[in-house]
Amino acid sequence: MRVSIQKIQQYKDNGERFPVLTAYDYPTAKIIDEAEVPMILVGDSLGNVVLGYESTVFVTMSDMLHHTKAVVRGSKKALVLADMPFMSYQVNPSEALVNGSKFLQEAGAQAIKLEGGEEMAETVDTLVSRGIPVVGHIGFTPQSAYQIGQRVQGKTVEAALQLVKDAQAIADAGAFSIVLELIPTEVAQIITEKLPIPTIGIGAGPHCDSQVQVVSDMLGLFTDFVPKHAKQYTEISSVMRKGIENYVGDVKSGSFPSKVHGSNLSENVLNELKSHL
Ligand code: KIV
């Protein structure tokens, strides 16, 4: 049985913090699931950290469904949350419903996430009232980066108040959780205390009910840059580089493959084969 949205709510009700991590493929999802992370986000950050795009706006429904299926196959217990890509939900609530349902029905996710505040409340309501569990996402919303810039949001009184209104509107519309990305610690704390649903922070300070990290950042796999909000727990790219360099050296020197990596004919078969040549 996978973690339910009721279990996610229980974490908040019991004052228990919980970790969330992104995953984009089968083996990573398997490791995260085995580490008892209760929620795995198939983030459209895969556009940056897996596909090498400069923006998540290039990520398509087909990309997201493909990677979500792999994460679902790799995990047994975690709730799998899939990001709705750019323009798959912004046009109107009906389109959001058609696209959102694909994540549950075709890809096997249990919930979807979409970016936006008050302006997306009607869409959230449409999805939730038709049976699609939704997580909101406010603050820095990467799909709008061309418009809002790559920076902390909610730093003025007016902007912070708008974030509080946005969070409330998304919660009132029925979202079961909300991501707060790149907002001041104090604003995240106010929102976390006001909302009945769990907040999931990234670059939003320690007071959120949960924290999410992009797995490629925290493992040191994505090497283009390390975001300020990310903590590198290891530097897996160095381990990979070393392994690959060793392989290159072994192939060039002829020390790979060795006898144990191959198979041989029996002497009889070899002799008979030679007699036919
Ligand atoms: O796409 C993603 O990985 C996200 C997280 C940054 C929350 O939305």
What general outline do the C-alpha atoms trace?
Answer: elongated
Return the structural class. alpha/beta
Order of H and E elements? HEHEHHEHEHEHHEHEEHHH
CATH topology of the largest domain: TIM Barrel
Number of domains: 2
Count of individual beta strands: 8
Give the count of helical stretches. 12
Question: Which regions have little confidence, pLDDT < 50, spanning 5+ residues?
Answer: none
Bound molecules: 3-methyl-2-oxobutanoic acid
**Rg estimate, integer Å:** 23 Å
CATH H-level superfamily title of the largest domain: Phosphoenolpyruvate-binding domains
Helicity, as a percent range? 40-55%
Distance between the termini: 60 Å
What do you see in this structure?
This protein is α/β, with parallel strands linked by helices and 277 residues long. It folds into two domains: 5-234, Phosphoenolpyruvate-binding domains (TIM Barrel); 239-275, no CATH class. Helix content is 43%, strand content 13%. It has helices at residues 5-13, 26-34, 46-49, 61-74, 93-105, 121-129, 145-148, 157-172, 185-194, 215-218, 236-253, 267-275; strands at residues 18-22, 39-42, 79-83, 111-113, 134-139, 177-181, 199-202, 210-213. Strands 1-2-3-4-5-6-7-8 form an eight-stranded parallel beta barrel, surrounded by seven helices. Helix 2 (26-34) packs across helix 4, helix 5 (93-105) packs across helix 6 and helix 8 runs parallel beside helix 9. The structure holds 3-methyl-2-oxobutanoic acid. The site of 3-methyl-2-oxobutanoic acid has 12 residues, from strand 6.
